[in-house]
C-alpha cells in the first residue's frame, strides 16, 4: 500500500497503531476494545440498583456507592460502572 507511509505519520490512537502493526481487523477479533467493555445491565440489576440507592442514600456518614457495591448481588461491577449507571437512571 503506497499510502501506508503517510498513515504512519499521523497516528490517531493506540488502537489505530495496533491495527497498523498487527493488521487491519485485529481489533474486531475480540482482543481489543470489546474485551474491556463492561457487560450491559439487565433490568433486574437496574431494579436492584434503584432499590439499593433509595435504601442507602439517606444514611449519614457512609459512602452510598460503597454500600451499594457491598450489597450488589452481581459481582464484578466497579465503582465507576455503578456511578455511571446511577447517573444514567
Automatic annotation (TrEMBL):
<protein>
    <submittedName>
        <fullName>TIM protein</fullName>
    </submittedName>
</protein>
<dbReference type="GO" id="GO:0003677">
    <property type="term" value="F:DNA binding"/>
</dbReference>
<dbReference type="GO" id="GO:0043111">
    <property type="term" value="P:replication fork arrest"/>
</dbReference>
<dbReference type="GO" id="GO:0000076">
    <property type="term" value="P:DNA replication checkpoint signaling"/>
</dbReference>
<feature type="region of interest" description="Disordered">
    <location>
        <begin position="22"/>
        <end position="45"/>
    </location>
</feature>
<dbReference type="GO" id="GO:0006281">
    <property type="term" value="P:DNA repair"/>
</dbReference>
<dbReference type="GO" id="GO:0031298">
    <property type="term" value="C:replication fork protection complex"/>
</dbReference>
<dbReference type="InterPro" id="IPR044998">
    <property type="entry name" value="Timeless"/>
</dbReference>
<dbReference type="Pfam" id="PF26019">
    <property type="entry name" value="HTH_TIMELESS"/>
</dbReference>
<dbReference type="InterPro" id="IPR001005">
    <property type="entry name" value="SANT/Myb"/>
</dbReference>
Amino acid at each position: 500500500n503506497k499510502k501506508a507511509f503517510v498513515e504512519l505519520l499521523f497516528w490517531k490512537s493506540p488502537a489505530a497503531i495496533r491495527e497498523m502493526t498487527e493488521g487491519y481487523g485485529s481489533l474486531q477479533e475480540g482482543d481489543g476494545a470489546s474485551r474491556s467493555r463492561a457487560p450491559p445491565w439487565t433490568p433486574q440489576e437496574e431494579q436492584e440498583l434503584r432499590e439499593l440507592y433509595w435504601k442507602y442514600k439517606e444514611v449519614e456518614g457512609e459512602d452510598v456507592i460503597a454500600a451499594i457495591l457491598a450489597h450488589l448481588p452481581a459481582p464484578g461491577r466497579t465503582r465507576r460502572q455503578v456511578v455511571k449507571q446511577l447517573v444514567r437512571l
